Amino acid sequence: MKDIKQAFLFLSHLSSETIIKEFKNIRRSTENTGDAFFLYDATGKIVPDKINKLSPYLYSKECLSSLYYPTIGQNIIPGHAHFPLFQFFLDKPDYDYYWVIEYDVRFCGEWQLFFDSFLKTNADFLSCHIRSNSDEPSWPWWKLNHPREYIPLHERLRSFNPIYRISNPAISFLHRAFRSGWCGHHEVAIPTLLQRNGLTIREISGSSKYTVLGMENKYYSGSGSNSGGVLSSGTMRYRPVFWRYGYGNNKLYHPVKPLKTVFYDNMLYYSALWKQSLGDFISRRKLIFKKKAKKSLTPQPQLQYFALNILDHCNLRCKGCDHFAAIAEKRFVSLDNIKKDLAQMSKILNGEIPRIGIMGGESLLHPQLKEILICARLFFPGTVLQLLTNGLLLLKQDEDFWRICREQNILIVNTKYPINLDHDAIEKTATAQNVMFEHYQNTGEITKTSYKIPLDLEGRQDPRKSFINCFHANVLPLLMEGKLYPCTVAPNVRHFNKRFGTHLELEDSDSLDIHRVNKASEITNFLSCPKAFCRYCDVHNRSYGHKWERSKFEISEWVTDKTVI
Ligand code: SF4
Question: Which of 72, 129, 222, 304 is deepest in the core (most CB within 10 A)?
Answer without folding.
Answer: 129
